[in-house]
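Exercise: predict the fold of this chain.
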Amino acid sequence: MIRVLVVDDSALIRRLISTALSGAADIEIVGTARDGLEAVDLVEELTPDVVTLDIEMPRLDGLGALVRIRERHRRLPIIMFSTLTERGASATLDALSRGASDYVTKPSNTGSVAEGLASVRDQLVPRIRALAGVRMLTPRPVPQRPVTAPVKPAAGSPQVLVIGSSTGGPDALAGLLGQLPADLRVPVVVVQHMPAVFTTMLAQRLDRSTPFAVREAAEGDVLRAGEVLIAPGDFHVRLASGGGGVRVRLDQGPAENFCRPAVDVLFRSAAETYGGRVLAAVLTGMGQDGLVGVRALTARGARVIVQDEATSVVWGMPGAVALAGLADEVVPLPELPRRLVAALR
């Protein structure tokens, strides 16, 4: 059983989470807390496997509780419960930068109770299982393609860097982009699994903390070297040639891997537009979004580098690529900037 502590000052939300999790036979709620101080005490008393943590609470809010819990429990999975607002997005990104494992969004007041339950269940149950599983797993052996020297596609050096990430991605992106050289000679396009508003806030934060101009992608944007475009929440990003360069095309087509934006959509379009002249990076994330797109890229000779298991919050997306034998390199996050620069050169 995965033992969960639920922390929220709203009795309604505590009951909603409890009901949503009650259908999962492998999940047990071992306690509830009404504020951050009570949560800190109950973590010590109950030793849960996972904590769900509200952000806005009396006495001690979620950010304060997160910091105190992390001081003693560095690996305890903590999932923040956030609102789909600018304020909620900002607080959630603060929490992720301070050590939260992931987040889910509270249901809006516009839907039915059944819709709210389904939303919480569909977001929360997979995250609890994935994050709790990480603590119990031992690293898996990874089949590697033999690489004795940097491999360049026959078509020439990469003309674009495409990145896919999910759970743990905001922090990983900040670390990665912050260490890349400011004179990067290619454009960068990123798909991070996040809803609208959250992707806007993420782009703004990365713009302030990295040497690049970072912004949310918009329909018709021309890709430019040294500029980073973030896929907007609820829109797929495709790359297409036209009008004197490669442009962004946004659409709200069907979700892929339950995601929109989806990494697979970006990667496939990069393969169609650039052929083998693509460098792809797959960072920490739950699920296997990106695997199909990587197959399309490697079939054309593109180079793929993925984050290793030890530095990933969840080794789902990069692990799927690595275990399929499609990664040219599997490297720790701190090493990733140097390897990407070497591949681009």
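Check your answer against the key: The chain is about 35% helix and 20% strand.
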